[in-house]
Design a protein that fits this description.
Length: 147
């Protein structure tokens, strides 16, 4: 067994022509800064508007880049992967595994999510404050009624 999951998520080959702003996407990951727990893969975190990747439309935030111009990105540090992208030339062929994992280590803003999240702690704090305010109001109302 070679460790690959078959039919789990589609593998795709994407050819991009480097534009004025490069390939038009940001990456994270590598052996030295894992983006997903126990995974040293290289992942797309941001597609830049009007960049080569956005104009092509197939590369998505959360996709894992497996190879660039036939060179596997497995077991590389982040800087080594960046250097491969920098020196890849004008026409760049990417082999990509589409889809992303929910076990990301990176900061929430780098994951591509646009919706703000509401934490359970925040909901509990607001609920507690409302309950306390209601108790104070009822106690005050009760005291005024007893006079």
């Amino acid at each position: 067994m070679n460790g690959r999951m078959h039919n789990a998520t589609p593998e795709l080959e994407i050819c991009l022509k480097r534009g004025p702003s490069g390939l038009g996407f940001n990456i994270v990951g590598g052996t030295d800064q894992q983006y997903i727990s126990n995974d040293s893969g290289i992942y797309v975190t941001k597609i830049k508007e009007q960049g080569a990747a956005a104009l092509d439309g197939r590369l998505q935030e959360g996709d894992r880049i497996l190879a660039i111009n036939g060179c596997e990105l497995q077991n590389l540090s982040h800087q080594e992967a960046v250097e491969l992208f920098r020196t890849a030339g004008e026409d760049v062929r990417l082999r990509v595994l589409q889809g992303h994992s929910a076990q990301m280590n990176g900061p929430a803003g780098s994951r591509g999510g646009a919706e703000p999240s509401i934490s359970l702690l925040g909901v509990l704090a607001v609920s507690g404050a409302l309950a306390l305010a209601a108790m104070v109001y009822l106690r005050f109302k009760h005291r005024i009624g007893m006079r």
